[in-house]
Amino acid sequence: MIYHGGKMTKGKLYLIPALIADGPVESVLPEGTLGILRNLEYFIVEEIRSARRFLIKAGIQKTIDELNIQIFNEHSNREDVHEYLDAAELNSHDIGLLSEAGVPCVADPGSLIVRVAHELGIRVVPLTGPSSILLALMASGFNGQNFAFAGYLPADKPMRAKKIRELEKIILEKDQTQIFIETPYRNLQVFESLTSICRPETQLCVASGISGESEMIQSRSIADWHGRKPDIHKKPTIFLLYR
């Protein structure tokens, strides 16, 4: 344990962005983020295999077997979240919270870990790295001062159609960009719903494979998208709607 002024100093919780697409980490993550990541020994991750691959690629200093890695995802027990932070609270170790892709806690279950860290008085430190949501918004040409992230659209087709109409109504009423994502294997289904439901003049940006070699970001009106099916099947994709 580390003591300062007679009091135990708690470790920090670092929020570590991961790569969105394959490529060299140095071209996406800043040196400051990589420097902190490489010196950590404790991690909370969403999926063990991809986390190990990323940590090795990022140049972690210790071997994978020397690291203490805990898994926290949508299937984890929500009742014992505080135990994931014992290393920081009780033993003064810094912990890295690692998302599956992009930044932690945005469209990601890690926000509960962060909430508990605040309750325990553990300092939360967000590190710089890629957010597919913000990168897509930056590149869309849509309203970047008034926007909302709607998460995942319903998988059920009628419910999805209802949600799309609701989002399009909000765009017209509030001049607000609407951003959402989908499970990659349903991307084309969502695209087809958008192009068949939205008004011809509504603007749709499709941002796929952001920061990777196959990156594709295009903004067109719904009318212009007709007959142009993008290559987005099973590729991480962000959709944005505007007027």
User: Roughly what is the average pLDDT, rounded to an integer?
Assistant: 93
The radius of gyration over CA amounts to 20 Å
Poorly predicted sequence stretches spanning 5 or more consecutive residues: none
End-to-end Cα distance, whole Å, is 56 Å
CATH architecture of the largest domain, please?
3-Layer(aba) Sandwich
Sum up the overall morphology in one term.
elongated
Report the sheet with the most strands, covering strand number, pairing sense and barrel closure.
5 strands, parallel
Strand tally, please? 12
Helix/strand structural class: alpha/beta
Examine the coordinates and then state which fold CATH places here, giving the name of the CATH topology of the largest domain. Cobalt-precorrin-4 Transmethylase, domain 1
Helix and strand sequence: EEEHEHEHEHEHEHEHEEHE
Approximately how much helix is present in the residues?
25-40%
* CATH H-level homologous superfamily name of the largest domain: Tetrapyrrole methylase, N-terminal domain
CATH first level of the largest domain: which class? Answer: Alpha Beta
